[in-house]
């Protein structure tokens, strides 16, 4: 584990022996980071703080990239150039490791014009992978294509990818835009019209020969009128609040099991998105038979809206004991009506108290996490759930629920991470969750805002179209 780094508006700039530059603090492994490949580098946005400075690795062969001042501001770009010059003056021997830091500095971070679309694109891609409930693929594609169309010189092949996404989703876009504009947007929803305007304009521009292009241009003109001059999110009016307040925020629950069954948790890093249920205790298992004929039956709750794919359905399970490096059983799981099921024979009889059942997909498999590592993985999953609930409360403009969220998360997830730190060492996620608790109270007006914490009113925190559609359906009936 790395030492906890405070969230700051000033970020470090490092240059190593191979000329590679690093900017900012790495937020940690998935699901703590939202990576995005940019021209000549890698940008990693913190999904728990997308409005704050991201981390970047910039290739030496590509220089600092024309996108850098637009994402990080001129101060950071200027500091990086000076740090590179300092690094070039340091003698390097053949015995020096390739990654040794030669020069370092720090620079004030003032986000450039590209920071918001880059952060939103990275978070949108993160949501497609890590959201604990399914989001509309069509709406994710439409928004991703729109953001990519605005970043042609920043993301590799951005224009081609944007064209592919938007052309494929053009019929969906036309139907959604017609539905939204016919019903009219309410106060607090003008950003939806603005995003649809940008999507319609980008699609018509990137695919002028598309049969739908004239229709899309007409809809873009209508959306422009609905968006108004100010694209910032407005405070919701009573009618919009009434329409969305019936939809509860997502809350993870652990289902009760019948007698004879034991439960285990799915490590989200080892399964595809939305293949299994996101609550803890999603695995249930029991032993069958005795002696040399002992077998194990495993069931895993499928995600509510999972659509079976005969080609991609390849989930499996493996069974471990604490003292053996190799599994005592491996079996395949087949998807049924609402769950995955499979059986296997144990290589040797083992008391059930000593067994650990792990579910994985062959393409996503990684070493099994146990002990403190498993506790940390569980805390990460809960932090992701908490983040999604927070995003829902922000989308609903619900100050009362923000305060309640802060109270619950402060007493549960933040406290759990603090306990893990005592055994496992400092963890940046602990400070991150605590900062979100403070930020939620500030957004609700219960605490003064702290610039070191995420600013939840910023446009980087605005919901995606896919998230908004869960509250206020965008697809026509």
Order of helices and strands: EEEEEHHEHHHHHHHEEEEEEEEHHHHH
CATH fold name of the largest domain: Immunoglobulin-like
The CATH class label of the largest domain is Mainly Beta
- What's the multimeric state? single chain
Please compute the radius of gyration using only Cα atoms: 24 Å
Protein name: DUF4132 domain-containing protein
Organism: Streptomyces prasinosporus
Description:
- By secondary structure, the chain is an alpha+beta fold.
- The protein folds into four domains: 9-117, no CATH class; 136-231, no CATH class; 255-367, Immunoglobulin-like (Sandwich), CATH 2.60.40; 374-456.
- Helix content is 39%, strand content 15%.
- It has 14 helices and 14 strands.
- The chain has helices at residues 68-72, 74-88, 115-130, 137-149, 158-168, 170-183, 190-206, 213-227, 238-244, 372-395, 399-411, 413-424, 428-443, 465-471; strands at 10-16, 21-23, 34-38, 41-45, 55-58, 101-108, 262-264, 283-288, 295-301, 316-320, 329-332, 334-335, 339-345, 356-360.
- A six-stranded antiparallel sheet has the order 3-4-5-2-1-6.
- A hairpin with a 2-residue loop joins strand 3 and strand 4.
- The longest helix is centred in the C-terminal third of the chain and has 24 residues, at 372-395.
- The radius of gyration is 24 Å and the shape is globular.
- The two termini are 49 Å apart.
- This is DUF4132 domain-containing protein.
- It comes from Streptomyces prasinosporus.
């Amino acid at each position: 584990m790395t030492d906890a780094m405070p969230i700051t508006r000033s970020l470090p700039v490092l240059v190593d022996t191979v000329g590679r530059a690093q900017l900012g603090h790495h937020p940690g492994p998935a699901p703590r980071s939202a990576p995005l490949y940019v021209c000549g580098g890698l940008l990693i946005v913190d999904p728990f703080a997308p409005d704050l400075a991201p981390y970047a690795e910039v290739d030496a062969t590509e220089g600092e990239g024309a996108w850098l001042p637009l994402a990080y501001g001129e101060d950071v770009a200027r500091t990086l150039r000076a740090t590179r010059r300092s690094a070039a003056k340091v003698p390097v021997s053949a015995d020096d490791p390739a990654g040794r830091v030669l020069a370092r500095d720090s620079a004030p971070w003032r986000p450039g014009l590209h920071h918001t679309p880059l952060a939103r694109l990275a978070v949108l891609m993160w949501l497609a992978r890590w959201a604990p409930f399914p989001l509309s693929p069509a709406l994710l594609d439409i928004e991703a294509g729109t953001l990519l169309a605005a970043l042609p010189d920043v993301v590799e092949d951005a224009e081609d990818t944007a064209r592919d996404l938007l052309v494929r989703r053009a019929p969906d876009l036309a139907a959604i835009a017609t539905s939204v504009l016919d019903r009219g947007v309410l106060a607090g929803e003008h950003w939806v019209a603005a995003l649809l305007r940008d999507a319609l304009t980008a699609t018509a521009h990137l695919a002028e020969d598309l049969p739908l292009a004239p229709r899309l241009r007409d809809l873009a003109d209508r959306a422009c009128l609905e968006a108004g001059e100010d694209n910032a999110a407005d405070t919701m009016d009573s009618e919009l609040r009434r329409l969305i307040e019936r939809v509860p925020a997502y809350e993870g629950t652990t289902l009760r099991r019948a007698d004879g069954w034991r439960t285990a948790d799915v490590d989200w890093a080892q399964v595809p998105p939305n293949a299994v249920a996101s609550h803890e205790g999603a695995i249930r298992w029991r032993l069958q038979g005795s002696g040399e004929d002992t077998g194990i039956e495993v069931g895993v709750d499928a995600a509510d809206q999972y659509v079976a794919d005969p080609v991609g359905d390849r989930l499996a399970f493996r069974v471990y004991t604490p003292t053996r490096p190799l599994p005592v059983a491996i079996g395949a799981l087949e998807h049924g009506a609402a769950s995955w099921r499979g059986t296997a024979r144990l290589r040797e009889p083992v008391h059930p108290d000593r067994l650990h059942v792990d579910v994985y997909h062959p393409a996503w498999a990684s070493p099994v996490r146990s002990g403190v590592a498993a506790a940390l993985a569980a805390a990460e999953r809960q932090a992701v759930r908490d983040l999604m609930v927070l995003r829902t409360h922000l989308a609903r403009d619900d100050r009362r629920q923000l305060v309640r969220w802060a109270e619950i998360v402060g007493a549960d997830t933040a406290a759990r991470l603090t306990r893990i730190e005592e055994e496992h060492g400092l963890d940046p996620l602990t400070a991150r969750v605590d900062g979100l608790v403070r930020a939620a109270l500030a957004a609700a007006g219960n605490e003064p805002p702290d610039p070191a914490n995420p600013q939840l009113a910023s446009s980087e925190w605005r919901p995606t179209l896919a998230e908004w559609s869960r509250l206020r359906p965008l697809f026509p009936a």
